[in-house]
Structures are given as structure tokens and as C-alpha cells.
What does this fold into?
Amino acid sequence: MTADAARLPAPAAAPAAPGALRMLARRSGTVLMPLGFAVSVLLLWEFLVRFYAVPTVILPAPSVVWARILSAWPFLLTHLVPTTVETVVGFLLSMILGTTLATFLVYGRRFREAVYPTVVFFQLIPKIALAPLFIVWLGIGSESRLAFSVFISFFPVVIATMAGLRAVPPDMLRLCRSLTATEAQVFAAVRFPYALPYIFSGMKIAVTFAMIGVIVGEFITAQAGLGYLILFASSQAETPLILASIATLCVIGLVLYGAVALAEKAMLRWYGSA
Amino acid sequence: MEPPPQIVVDGVRKVYETPSGPVEAVARASFTIRRREFVSILGPSGCGKSTLLMMIAGLDPASEGSITVDGAPVTGPRPEFGLVFQDATLLPWKSALENVLFPIRMMRREVAPARERAMRLLDFVGLGGFEGKKPHQLSGGMRQRVAICRALVHDPELLLMDEPFSALDAITRDEMNVALMDIWDAYHKTGVFITHSIREAVFLSDRVLVMAKRPSTVVADVTIPFPRPRDMSIQEDPEFNRICGELRARIEEGYARAGEARGPRRSLKAFA
It folds into this structure.
């Protein structure tokens, strides 16, 4: 038995060799290479626009977009807030709705047989085509944008949560049954924690979809928000402002996705999947 | 006077209804197991031995026949059974100690008094100091030891083990056999052990039941005469090897009876 103890690997055995340089070398694959590629693309873009003297209204150079971001910053900030808030709220609502619906779908056989085909059907139709309907039903306020954002982002959560709740090893469920555990106990202590890694992968998709939903909503009806700003700028043929808005959107999307990814990392550490 | 047997399996048959017609998992099984006896059920894969164990555990109803434990018919799961599976099936996010305490929580019993017993069990199987580790920080053998502690923590009458060591490498498996033997001598349970390893069955058991395939029945009931406590050295004993040879012959007879003749010679010929 002590032989086993000796065999236990040191957790995350780090190579003994010294730090920073090696770290950089190891990171180069995941950080430096993609960064380098992105910078090269921007440089190429800058060069081509200047070399061929492309009109700014067609395609502004990255440096022009950057200057526009700086000059329009207060403006961008006021439009960034509603978009971000609606995206976050839409995402949270779709998480709650998605996990709840998935739980009912997994537990209720009759409910699943009745409802699941319809849920899938609504995923097969091009959802963006339905966006104007939401305006008709819910008006031009943030309700319709939120509802559409949830509509577009909850499905990946449903699918991921259902898969997760069913991922429990059959022997684990046998053990629970043999211990005469109640279904509520099994859900709280076994099924839901087992589903967490799946739920998080659904969350990563949902957070990007939620933003798409909000932007589409803003395209159709809004007096504020980055989607509105993009439409407004295009009506003025203000291409640098369009790209500045898009760049701001990218940053928000990246931050939100990063937050979910960080939460996932913390969850996986707790979960103990080495 | 002989005490009445603890487990009575009487004319048990199990048929599964499948889309392509009924499949007979167990054709007929009848045997008894005495209190504190360690019995292995030995047979080739697919002979229905795991199904039989699940029926004894009350997790799968028998199609025909009856199973009684301590005089009461098994009609559903009973928490006084401890179960060990082929994989440790631990909760990955829980420490070894919390995994051992899992049955206590699921049975809605008080956790505090069981904690000490859980620690003693972990200590006993050589995992003292590892109680805070999560499953991924433990080796396969250590995980399976945690699973055995978990099966014993609520002091069950019966320990039912479904090929618990078959996923481990040969060396770890030998270690685990010795560890289980030690647990056996210390905790005195009634044990039913499913395996397809002849040597493992002989080493651990008081009795070995041999199951054949098609029809899936118990074809031999062999008493293992070695006194306890045992250690690895009995495996060198000529008697040990004679018993192993006899069991192997019975398994092959089972094949022959089924008209399959799937013994090693035949399969070698098929490769030639």
C-alpha cells in the first residue's frame, strides 16, 4: 500500500528549469503566435489601404479607426452601456431558462416527448427572421431585445445541460438507488455537479449568441446601443465610426467570453478534472 | 448445528425484453451463501454473473424465482448492502473522505459520527493522509480502495462486488487482493464477488461458483479449503494450482455443453 503512496504523482509537476524565458517559450504557441498573426494582418491592412489610396468611406486604415475610437470615446461609452447590460441580462436569463427547461426535459418523459420536437423545430428556422415579430409583440423597448437575445441563446444551454445531466455513470446512479437516495438528493449531489462542465461549454456559446441577439434587436429598433450606432454611422457614411463601434463590440464580446472562460476554469479546478 | 444461510437464490431466471426478442441473461441459478462467507461467482463475460449480482442487490428484479436475504425476499434496493463496481465511480469533485461519507449523506444519516469510522477505514486500507485528496490525485488502486471504504462506511451486512479489480493492472490487482483479504479478516462481512479471474477467485473465496454461458447456469460449486488469514504464498501451493485447474476445466465444460467449444485450442486453430 505504501508502494501506491510513493507512486502518487506530485500535482502538476513543473519542470525544474528556470522561469521567465522558458515560460515565454512555452507560451509562444498560445499567445505570441496568434498575437503576431493579428498584428501582421493589421499592418498589411494599413499598408494596402495607404498604398492603393483606398477612400476612407470604403475602408479606413486601422490607424484611422483607432483615431476615431479615441475621438468618439465618450460617445462610444454611452452606447456601449445598454448593449452590454442587455447582453448580460439576456445571457443570465437564457442560463436560467435553459438549465430549467433542460432539467424538466430530462426528468419528465411525457414533457420531453411533447415539447422537445417543438424546441428543436424552432432551432431549425432562421431565428433572425423572427426578430421583427418580437418588436410587434413586445414593442420597441429593451424587452423585445432581451426576449430575442434569450430566444437565440438558450438552445445551446438546453442541449449542453441535457447532455450533462445524462452523463452520470450508470453505476453511480445504481449506487444512489441502492442507498435509497431521493431523486432530489441525486439531482443536487450527483447529476447537477456532473453536468457543470457541460453547462459551462453551453454558456460559452450562449454568451456570444446573447450579444448577437441584442445587436440584431438594436438594428431593428433602438435609440441607443452599439448596434444602433453602427446603423446610424452607416446612414452618415461614417465608415470609421462603424469600424470603431465594431471594435468596441469585439472588446465587450471578448471580455464577456473571457469572464465565462475564467469562471469555467475555476469550476474545473473545483471539479477536479486534471 | 448449521445456521440458516443468509442469502438464498432459488430458481432465479432473468429475461430481458429487447426489440429483437427476449434475451435470457440468467437461465437458472440456485445457491445459498452463509453469513460471513466469501463467495466468488466466476465465469466468462456475458454469462450473466453481473446481472445475478444486481438482482441480489435488489437493483434489477428477477423474472422468475426468488432471492431472500436474512429470510426477507429482496424486492428492491436495500441500504444494508455495500456495492463496489468495476470502476471506482467516485465523485470527481469530492475528497476521498467525502466520497467515503457519500452513502451516509444519501441515506440521510448523521454525518459527524460516521466521520471517525470513515477515517479509520481509509487508514486501514493505507490511505491515511490522503483523505483530503480528490480522485484525480489518486492512483487507480487507491481510488478503488476509496470505493471499498465507501461500501463499508454504513456497516452493511453484505458486500457485493462486481469485478472490482478487473480494470487494474496485474500488480495493483495482486495488491488489492491482499488489501481486500485484510479488510475481510477485520470487518467480517458476507461477500459476493464477481470475477473472471480464476486465481483471484480461489485466493479470496471460501467458495467459488462457476457460471456457464448459454444456458447461463451455475455449473459448479467448489469449496476452497485454505485456512484464513491467507497470504500470497498460498498461490505457490500445488493444491491452489490444482483447484485452479479444476475450475478451468469446469469453465471449459460449460462451453462444451453449450456446443460452442470456444476453448483456447479451438480459437488457436481459428487463427492458424
